[in-house]
Amino acid sequence: MTGGPLARPDGSASGVAAASPMGAPAGPAPVVAIVGRPNVGKSTLFNRLMRERRAIVDDRPGVTVDRLEASWSLDGRPVTLVDTGGIGLDDGGGLQDCIAAQVDAALDVADLVLFVVDGTAGLTPLDERIADRLRRQGLPVLLVANKAERPESALEFFALGLGEPVAVSALHGHGLRALREALAERIPWPEGGEAAEDTRVIAQLAVIGRPNVGKSTLINAWLGRERMAVSPVAGTTRDAVDVDLPWKDESGEGVVRLVDTAGQRRRSRIRDAVELVARVKARQAFARADAAVLVLDAAAEVAEQDMRLLGLAWEKGCALVVAVNKVDLLDHDAWARFAERLDFRLRGLPDVPVCRISAAKGKGVRALLKKAVNAARRNRTELGTGELNRWLERAQMRQHPPSDDGAVVRMKYCTQTATRPPTIRIFCNRPDAVRQSYRRYLERDFRRCFDLAGVPVRLELAATDNPYDDGRRRKRR
Fold first, then answer.
1. For residues 46 and 65, what is the distance between their CA atoms, to the nearest angstrom?
2. Residue 355 in contact with residue 324, Cβ under 8 Å?
3. Could you tell me the CATH superfamily of domain 201-379?
4. Class assignment of domain 385-463?
5. 201 in Cβ contact with 254 (< 8 Å)
6. Which CATH superfamily is domain 31-193 in?
7. Which candidate, 297, 211, 310, places its Cα nearest to that of 260?
8. pLDDT tens across 388-406, in order?
9. SS3 label, residue 188
10. pTM of the full predicted structure?
11. Which residue in 357, 300, 354, 368 sits closest to 327, CA to CA?
12. What's the Cα-to-Cα distance from 465 to each of 394, 413, 468, rounded to whole Å?
């Protein structure tokens, strides 16, 4: 069960587990929370306003559990938009307490509430109870009648006593201009209308793993508060939820963006469309992360699915860190056996850092976060052409490239073309003749030389002639 305050964009309400908080920027963005009973179209409206599919949408109630926050621009002014789960869900699965706590946290800091009702279903007793609750809390409310293709279907919601409802159809995009105008009038903008400065994102960390290994608990431990919904029910996390953690160290200050992903099972075991969408969103999170933290359950075996997740994150260009959670359940001998099996499983990956933690008790989580941030920074390493070419020369001296049927293979020079992951283009007289074993040698030597443990490296071999030859010599021949 979760509770605790929602972090404002300035970081003023967020706990910091591993770093000192940065100063709050001027003019924090106002928070707009979208609330309502289940299945009225809150997530559809959220996606429509964001103009992208950020939240998972399904006809069944209870799909949204965690609150989903996103930065949104309204007439050029920053707003934090928050999607929440349905109020009053009775699913019998133990998730309603989690959803209710997330809604409470969103309402605690909301500057304006978008109360969404269903224009097709009409006014319900649950709508009346939610309206009464909002009035008692004294929150500014903008009433939105969704699924109201006919504006007259919104008239009966005047009875809620929350003012004139704005009739929209989030699915078809009707009425959004009127909604934006109403929002611009009702949002309590900061004095002076100054926009908050863009905060530097130091690293983006994706927390991955199978269901119920403690991913959300780990993020809560890092934040120092109950931000993510935690439940023994498998599949509680569905959306890929971004949370910013203020960070300050010797290299500067900014935020570390934490991405909590849905637990990943084998595709053959997925029988639910929502879980399939959650799987896709989790994999999309890998593509924008600098580093991935794989959470393992110390009380369970290292499964093939864990290695698939590591391999997928590696292919997407994430630096890797492995966190073995619940180590307090193992004695010395049990840990030795687990570590031996894990080491065998990781034999194909280059020096991936492994941390022992207990997320529920907060043990080892600070050291893990520091290692993950350092791995993310290593993944953004930028190297000069001079030091790269010196490395290439020394690597060839230590181990010469195999010949091509007696012909000498020469690697002439190299340059870095990208980061995240570091991508090096090597110009060679016979690129097709370079064997895979020698490529692996170069990757290992590159990581060792530049201290890039756990970082994927991309080596691209390109054919080239003499870079100083302007073509006249070839014409003479």
1. 14
2. yes
3. P-loop containing nucleotide triphosphate hydrolases (3.40.50.300)
4. alpha beta
5. yes
6. P-loop containing nucleotide triphosphate hydrolases (3.40.50.300)
7. 211
8. 999 999 999 999 888 877 7
9. coil
10. 0.64
11. 357
12. 22, 11, 9
